[in-house]
């Protein structure tokens, strides 16, 4: 009873104190707590439009930087399509990974955005299971619930769990790589780039893009990614026997299967991280979708067929050797790159709009995470663009919202100088587009 009385008295005192003014007379009461209602503020169609003269004046100082080397480019108004500035826009240049802008446009234009790939495990004989690839390099060997490099990937761990649930006593694992045919490496690629982490042999079965370190973007890749995937399944099943290649028997003997992320998710991963392996496998997927062969060469041809139909006026001067841009044999023009970006950010090609989500954000994500430093270059957070870098080649294609709220598309292609020098010079040009009303 004593404890109850003390507690009651304490509550009464506390209530009285809460009601009493704690501030001297004349001091305003404490303001109400701020409530937040986050919303997306859409770009206004009535935002002031830049003029060609305004754009030229704004970027003129940045264009005088010798680090730009030989520069070609185009800048357009995304809303109207008006060309605001250009320099040799139809001159074919090496695009480096800006090639992926073209590839992404072809994939999104021609394939269902929700398309998925299904990796299966088929029961063989004498306790063998056969892991059959479907062309999905985002399949991961990471354990259940562990972090992954790619977004929403299928997991080897799920396949292993399904096999265990089926009660199959597994004695060995084999891999079926038959879905893809032809060469696994383009003749213009350098095999040293496998160890360098830029590419892996393109096989229909891979885990983590062939990375030896699955979370390291720049990890060396496997020279035998299909076998590596089989070894990951064997490890998950506790099987010690060597992994071999085999053909999965026909019929309904599938004992496990997993699905990839939707096409649009995989395309945006490709753009954000400039993933060469993913670009090449998606090109083969495009060819198969259009009824063509499952080869690297057919994938490149399929990209060309889609884009030459979608952008017939700008396609002239483009020849592609691969889908990723690591080949020095690729050629395209600022006119085509800018046309694709104008279409994606404007109203003419809604199928291309999702690619804007995958473009790296200046000083924020992907290959632009360490570019456009706030202290020296405008544009952080306002520029979305695909980077492209090879020795002596630097390119940048994307969109930027001006300080007045107008969205501009751009494609800049530089050559003949070190990328270490050219990249900040390109960023400076685009940064000026952000800062100017350009009217």
TrEMBL record:
Matching entries from InterPro entries are given as: Beta-lactam/transpept-like, Peptidase_S13
Kindly list any coiled-coil regions of this protein.
none
What GO biological process terms are annotated to this protein in UniProt?
Answer: peptidoglycan metabolic process; proteolysis
Residues spanning the membrane: none
Superkingdom of this protein's organism: Bacteria
Q: SUPFAM superfamilies of this UniProt entry?
A: beta-lactamase/transpeptidase-like
Q: Which GO terms describe its molecular function?
A: serine-type carboxypeptidase activity
Provide the alphabetized UniProt keywords.
Carboxypeptidase, Hydrolase, Protease
Which Pfam families has this protein been placed in? Peptidase_S13 (PF02113)
Tell me its family. Belongs to the peptidase S13 family.
PANTHER family noted in UniProt: D-ALANYL-D-ALANINE CARBOXYPEPTIDASE, PENICILLIN-SENSITIVE CARBOXYPEPTIDASE A
Protein's name according to its UniProt entry: D-alanyl-D-alanine carboxypeptidase
Gene encoding this chain?
A: dac
């Amino acid at each position: 009873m004593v404890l109850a009385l003390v507690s009651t008295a304490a509550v009464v005192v506390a209530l009285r104190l809460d009601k009493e003014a704690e501030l001297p007379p004349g001091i305003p009461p404490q303001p109400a707590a701020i409530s937040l209602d986050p919303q997306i503020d859409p770009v206004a169609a009535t935002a002031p439009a830049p003029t060609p003269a305004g754009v030229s004046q704004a970027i003129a100082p940045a264009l005088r930087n010798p680090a730009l080397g030989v520069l070609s480019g185009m800048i357009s108004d995304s809303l109207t399509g008006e060309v605001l500035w250009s320099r040799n826009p139809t001159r074919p240049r090496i695009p480096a990974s800006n090639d992926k802008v073209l590839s992404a446009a072809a994939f999104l234009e021609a394939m269902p955005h929700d398309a998925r790939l299904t990796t299966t495990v088929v029961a063989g004989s004498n306790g063998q299971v056969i892991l059959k690839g479907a062309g999905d390099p985002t399949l991961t060997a990471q354990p259940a619930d562990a972090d992954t490099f790619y977004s929403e990937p299928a997991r080897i761990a799920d396949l292993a769990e399904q096999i265990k649930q089926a009660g199959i006593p597994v004695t060995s694992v084999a891999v079926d790589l038959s879905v893809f045919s032809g060469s696994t490496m383009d003749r213009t690629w350098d095999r040293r780039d496998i160890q360098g982490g830029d590419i892996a042999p393109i096989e229909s079965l891979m885990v983590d893009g062939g990375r030896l370190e699955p979370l390291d973007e720049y990890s060396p890749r496997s020279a035998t990614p299909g076998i590596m995937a089989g070894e990951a399944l064997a490890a998950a099943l506790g099987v010690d026997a060597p992994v071999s290649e085999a053909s999965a028997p026909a019929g309904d003997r599938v004992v496990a299967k997993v699905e990839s992320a939707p096409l649009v998710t995989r395309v945006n991963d490709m753009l954000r991280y400039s993933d060469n392996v993913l670009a090449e496998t998606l090109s083969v997927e495009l060819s198969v979708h259009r009824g063509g062969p499952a080869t690297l060469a057919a994938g490149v041809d399929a990209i060309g067929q889609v884009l030459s139909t979608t952008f017939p006026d700008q396609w002239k001067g483009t020849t592609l050797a691969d889908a990723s841009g690591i080949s020095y044999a690729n050629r395209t023009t600022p006119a085509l790159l800018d046309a694709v970006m104008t279409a994606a950010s404007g109203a003419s090609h809604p199928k291309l709009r999702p690619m804007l989500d995958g473009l790296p954000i200046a000083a924020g994500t992907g290959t632009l995470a360490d570019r456009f430093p706030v202290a020296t270059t405008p544009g952080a957070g306002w520029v979305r663009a695909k980077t492209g870098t090879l020795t002596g080649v630097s390119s940048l294609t994307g969109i930027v919202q001006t300080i007045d709220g107008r969205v501009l598309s751009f494609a800049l292609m530089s050559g003949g100088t070190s990328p270490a020098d050219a990249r900040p010079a390109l960023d400076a040009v685009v940064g000026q587009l952000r800062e100017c009303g350009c009217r």
